Every structure is written in C-alpha cells, then in structure tokens.
Amino acid sequence: MWFSHAQPDDRRLVLAESAIDALSYAALFPDTEDQTRYASLGGKASARQMALVEATIAKLPAGAEIVAAFDADDAGRKLVDVIRQAVASVARRAGRTDLAFKAQLPAKGGKDWNQVLQDARLMVG
C-alpha cells in the first residue's frame, strides 16, 4: 500500500489501484488548495490494507470526501464497492454523517487513470 503526503487539514482522500494511477489522477484533477491525500491498494485489497484505509478515513476531518478512483473494469468496480462499504463502516462505528463518498472511474472501459493521462497528453502534444 502506498500513501502520499498527509496533512491534518486534508479534506479529501483519493484511493486508486496503483501509485501511478493515484499520481495520474492527481495530475488530471489537481487540488489547488493541496488538501488531498492519495493512496493505492496495489490491486486487490487485503484485510490489513482495509484496516489502514478505515483508520485513515476515521481520522479525516469533518466534511471530508473519499474518492474511489479505480480502473474502469470489473475489478475496479468491485474495489469501489469495497471502499463504499469501508466508508459506511467507519460512519456507522464513529457515528459520522459528514463523510462524502464518490466513485470516479475512467469513462472508457478497461482504462486506468495513467492511460487516461497518457491519452490526454497525446492529444495536447
């Protein structure tokens, strides 16, 4: 599991399948306020990784948003459900109603965020 820098005032957590996808997502959707942290699961999420994800979500400040930014395939959609359940679990255990969940997958099936970034650069360059 990979985590980017983390600041106490981060208001957003973006989860991706790989570190390069998380960094590509950051390049595609920059946070001008620098209040987003990024993490990757390295593919299928283990129980230990999910415990880390839930602990990270629990520490986010009020009104935080969790973004599941996985690949546009069956595995990515399954991970979206896993993260959705993790957010719901944290909200239930901690009595938090302030957490926002969002799924954002590449528009084209079979793509990941690094491919989307590369395609965008080819179109510009």
What would your notes on this structure say?
Helices cover 45% and strands 16% of the residues. The protein has four helices and five strands. α1 crosses α4. The longest helix is centred in the C-terminal third of the chain and has 21 residues. It starts with a strand and ends with a helix.
Which helices and strands occur, and which strands form pairs?
Blueprint lengths: L1 E2 L8 E5 L2 H10 L7 E5 L6 H13 L5 E4 L5 H21 L5 E4 L9 H12 L1
Short recap of the structure:
The protein is an alpha/beta fold. The protein has helices spanning 19-28, 47-59, 74-94, 113-124; strands spanning 2-3, 12-16, 36-40, 65-68, 100-103.
> If you compute it from the alpha carbons, what radius of gyration comes out, rounded to the nearest whole angstrom?
14 Å
What share of residues is helical? 40-55%
Arithmetic mean pLDDT: 93
The percent range for strand residues is: 15-25%
Please work out how many helical segments DSSP would assign: 4
Q: What is the 3D shape?
A: globular
Protein structure class: alpha/beta
The number of E-state strands comes to: 5
Alpha carbon gap, first and last residue: 33 Å
Largest sheet, order of strands side by side?
1-3-2-4-5
**Sheet with most strands:** 5 strands, mixed
**Could you give the order of the helices and strands?**
EEHEHEHEH
Q: Spans of 5+ residues with little confidence (pLDDT < 50)?
A: none
